[in-house]
């Protein structure tokens, strides 16, 4: 059964075109004085598209950028250095379809006592066909959802993202890159949760938006659990709007070229789409704020289901069960 709002890639792309013309009331809130000096920023999937644009902009604004990804090492890091004029840029290997690399990545940060001020969970795929990852979990579900659960829980459990508010320190921020296409997806179907299914392009596009609804529901629940009394970690979600990126690279060839021409004409460049992400990551406007959602430079609410307490709790428990079913070391924060 399809759970997402769209099951046609052309209709989904045209919805993106409509977004292109929407009013951006917060656009002038990001100024040149919003800088990352002294801050460490992790960006997953930073070798391409939006993540690459964010990496350049963060480095240009003085941040130490850790580009986490599975390809483009080291050349994409060198390109970010060149474009930003900063050498505070490094690349680290992380393949979100291979769980052991998430452990290695977090272990590396821990060993070097790297505590990111901002963690941007950007990596994502839009697969046209269901594909099994080495763990047996379907790859798009794993990369776009479950691996983000694993990565964030490991980083918090290993004290890489620290919950303790130190005197004078700004609180860490976690940003989930989502998609406004999540709006209108169905309630989470636990009969199908994490179950491998060989889907085609229509179900693929539907799953993409549905998995973003699951991701957002997790983000709100993570925020609840980290911030029971005070805000210790800001956990926020953003849709970058339509980005001229490689997100459709797995689409069938004809469809790829048709969609690419729309992307080229009206979608935003990664450099432009990165700006609201940078705003949410660094602006004082979001200091101490959590469970907020931006659609580009617009205030918005996520789909109401994402805020339901029972849904969040159930998702948390079922995500833990699923993680534990493929990994004995699974451990969620309390
Ligand atoms: N494009 C849009 O219009 C749009 C709209 C709304 C939301 N978004 C969201 O924006 C985010 C970035 O996408 P994009 O549009 O910039 O597409 P993109 O150019 O394809 O970038 C996706 C990034 O994710 C990485 N990635 C994919 N699978 C991975 C894995 N197994 N392990 C580690 N990294 C992996 C890719 O690495 P490789 O190069 O190695 O594959 C790439 O760096 C995604 O979360 C997407 O859902 C995009």
Topology, please?
Blueprint: H1 9-20, E1 40-44, H2 49-60, E2 64-69, H3 75-84, E3 89-93, H4 99-111, E4 118-121, H5 139-157, E5 173-177, H6 201-226, E6 234-239, H7 253-266, H8 270-282, E7 293-295, E8 298-299, H9 309-326
Helix pairs in contact: 1-7, 2-3, 2-8, 4-5, 5-6, 6-9
Bound molecules: NADP nicotinamide-adenine-dinucleotide phosphate.
NADP nicotinamide-adenine-dinucleotide phosphate binds at residues 16, 45, 47-51, 69-71, 94-97, 122-125, 143, 177, 179, 239-240, 242-243, 245-247.
Percentage of residues in helical conformation: 40-55%
The oligomerization state is single chain
Mean residue pLDDT: 93
Q: What's the end-to-end separation, in Å?
A: 33 Å
Strands, count: 8
Number of domains in the coordinates?
A: 1
Which second-level CATH architecture applies? 3-Layer(aba) Sandwich
In this entry the ligands are: NADP nicotinamide-adenine-dinucleotide phosphate
Radius of gyration equals 18 Å
CATH domain fold name: Rossmann fold
Outline type: globular
β-strand percent reads 5-15%
CATH superfamily: NAD(P)-binding Rossmann-like Domain
Main sheet specs: 8 strands, mixed
Order of helices and strands: HEHEHEHEHEHEHHEEH
CATH class reads: Alpha Beta
| Number of helices, where a helix is a run of at least 4 consecutive DSSP H or I residues | 9
Contiguous uncertain segments of 5+ residues: none
Structural class: alpha/beta
Strand order of the largest sheet: 3-2-1-4-5-6-7-8
Structural write-up:
The chain is an alpha/beta fold and 334 residues long. It has a single domain (9-326), classed as Rossmann fold, CATH 3.40.50.720. The chain is 41% helix and 11% strand. It contains nine helices and eight strands. The chain has helices spanning 9-20, 49-60, 75-84, 99-111, 139-157, 201-226, 253-266, 270-282, 309-326; strands at 40-44, 64-69, 89-93, 118-121, 173-177, 234-239, 293-295, 298-299. An eight-stranded mixed beta sheet has the order 3-2-1-4-5-6-7-8, with helices on both faces. Helix 1 packs parallel to helix 7 (253-266) and helix 6 packs across helix 9 (309-326). The chain starts with 8 loop residues before the first helix and ends in an 8-residue tail after the last helix. NADP nicotinamide-adenine-dinucleotide phosphate (NAP) is lined by residues 16, 45, 47-51, 69-71, 94-97, 122-125, 143, 177, 179, 239-240, 242-243, 245-247.
């Amino acid at each position: 059964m399809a759970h997402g709002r769209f099951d046609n890639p052309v209709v989904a792309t045209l919805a993106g075109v409509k977004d292109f013309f929407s009013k951006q009331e917060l656009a002038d809130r990001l100024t040149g004085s919003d800088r990352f000096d002294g801050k460490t920023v992790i960006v997953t999937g930073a070798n391409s598209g939006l993540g690459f644009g964010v990496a350049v902009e963060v480095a240009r604004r003085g941040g130490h950028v850790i580009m986490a990804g599975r390809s483009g090492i080291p050349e994409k890091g060198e390109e970010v250095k060149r474009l930003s004029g900063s050498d505070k840029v490094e690349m680290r290997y992380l393949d979100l379809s291979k769980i052991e690399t998430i452990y290695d990545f977090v272990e590396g940060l821990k060993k070097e006592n790297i505590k990111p001020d901002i963690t941007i969970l950007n990596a994502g795929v839009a697969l046209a066909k269901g594909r099994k990852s080495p763990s047996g979990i379907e790859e798009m579900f794993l990369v776009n959802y479950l691996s983000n659960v694993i990565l964030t829980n490991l980083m918090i459990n290993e004290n890489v993202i620290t919950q303790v508010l130190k005197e004078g320190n700004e609180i860490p921020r976690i940003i989930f890159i989502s998609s406004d296409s999540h709006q209108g997806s169905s309630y989470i179907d636990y009969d199908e949760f994490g179950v491998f299914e060989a889907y085609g392009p229509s179900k693929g596009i539907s799953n993409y938006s549905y998995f973003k609804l699951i991701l957002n529901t997790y983000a709100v629940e993570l925020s609840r659990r980290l911030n029971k009394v005070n805000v210790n970690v800001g956990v926020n979600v953003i849709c970058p709007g339509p980005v001229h990126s490689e997100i459709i690279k797995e689409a069938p060839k004809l469809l790829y070229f048709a969609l690419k021409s729309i992307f080229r004409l009206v979608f935003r460049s990664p450099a432009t789409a990165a700006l609201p992400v940078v705003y949410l990551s660094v602006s004082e406007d979001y200091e101490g704020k959590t469970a907020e959602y931006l659609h580009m430079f617009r205030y918005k609410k996520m789909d109401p289901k994402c805020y339901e307490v029972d849904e969040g709790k159930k998702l948390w428990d079922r995500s833990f069960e699923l993680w534990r079913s493929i990994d004995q070391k699974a451990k969620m924060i309390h």
